[in-house]
Structures are given as structure tokens and as C-alpha cells.
Amino acid sequence: MSETNTIINIKRINAILYFAKNIKDCGKTKLFKLLYYLDFIHFKKYGFSVTGYSYIAMPYGPVPKELFEQLRTDNLPKEYEESFFVEKEAKDEDDKYFLFHIKPRTKKIDLDWFSPSELEILEQVVEIFKESTAKDMVEASHFKNQPWDKTLKNGKIGDEIDYFLVHDTDSALSLEDLKERYQLQKLLME
Predict the structure, then answer these.
(1) Backbone φ and ψ of 104, nearest 5°
(2) Which residues contact 51 (CB under 8 A, 6 or more apart)?
(3) Rounded CA gap, 45 and 38, in Å?
(4) What would the DSSP string read from start to end of 32-88?
(5) Is 60 exceeded by the pLDDT of residue 58?
(6) Which residue from 190, 145, 135, 150 is spatially nearest to 169, judged by alpha carbons?
(7) Helices 3-22/116-129 angle, 10° precision
(8) CA-CA-CA-CA dihedral for 56, 143, 127, 123, to nearest 10
């Protein structure tokens, strides 16, 4: 694993721990949306995602494809399993559905791995969503003309959500700058 990928994994773990500690009832659905907002807000403002995840459009909104598959197949990397686990509980005896909670195995969250801009957005996302329900977050991710909505207008469930769909008239960076920074980040992650 390259040094860049090691740093990305450390950031991913610490972002998950930060959300689990600071967000009320942080389950899988909420975690997926929190990571999405962290990455897409930071990308729109600075031209880089924080976690490097690719997101796909699923029925309940954007999902980080790699983490989704790892959790679905119960195949988290060792360093993730050492840091947190997913607690599964039935809603009630007759209900076939389950609630999932992200539970830290450690109290230590190392925010030193994040740049000032990444910390800014991490804290911003927590401030916005700390009391939100999973349903609220799903609804917010489905807003008209947002990346998830735009992806489904031209595609289908399971399609990758293009980071460039966040670019609009409010974007701090030009589309060309975003593309240049995106390519740089991809090169660093190889």
C-alpha cells in the first residue's frame, strides 16, 4: 500500500470515528451520507475529496462504493475493525429490518491527519447534521439538481456519482481547476 493510500485510510477511519462520536445515532445510512457531504462539500470548495471514496447512486442516496461493499460482505480491513464495529439490532421481534450503529472501539480520534480545510468541512458537516435522522439525511441527499438527482436523471441506481456534478455558479473554483485537482488527487492515490 502506498503512503498516500495509508494516509487516506487513516483519514477515513478518523472521519468515521469523529462522526460516530459527534452524530446522534450514527448508523450506516447516516455515515454514508456524512462521508458523502464531507467529500463533496470539500471537493466543491477546494477541488479535493477528503476520503478518496467513489460514490454510487443507491435508492437511499449516495453511498461510498468501497465501504458499502466492505460492510455488506462483512469484510472490513483489519485497521477498520480495530477502530470501530457495526452493531446490528432488530427494531422489534416481528420486524425483519435492523438498525445499524457505528460503534468506536477506541476513544482516540486523531484529527492531526486532516488539513485545516478538511477539519473545517468535517466540523461543518457535524454541525449541520448532528441531530438529523437518517430519513432527514436521505431526503437532503435527494434534493433536486444535486449530484444524486442529476446522476439518476441520466442514469440508474448503481451508477457512479461524478464529483464534477457539484460545480455550479456558487463554486469557488472553475471547472478546469476542479478537473486539474481531481486528476492530481487520482495520480497521488495510484
Answers:
(1) -65, 145
(2) 8, 11, 12, 15, 35, 38, 39, 64
(3) 11
(4) HHHHHHHHHHHHHHHS--SS---EEEETTEEEEHHHHHHHHTT---HHHHTTEEEEE
(5) yes
(6) 145
(7) 30
(8) 40
Reported pTM? 0.90
Cα-atom radius of gyration of the chain, to the nearest Å? 16
Residue 59, C-alpha cell as written in the block:
435508492
Query: Which residue is it, cell 460482505?
Result: 73
Under 8 Å between Cβ of 111 and 15 = no
Kindly report the average pLDDT of the chain as a whole number.
89
Cα gap 8→173, rounded to integer Å: 23
Q: Give one word for 47, left, alpha or beta, with left for phi > 0 and alpha for psi -120 to 50.
A: left
Q: What are phi and psi of 87, to 5 degrees?
A: -90, 130
Q: Distance between CA atoms of 37 and 181, rounded to whole angstroms?
A: 18
Single-letter code of the amino acid located at 169: T
Dump pLDDT digits (tens) for 167-185. 988 888 888 988 898 888 8
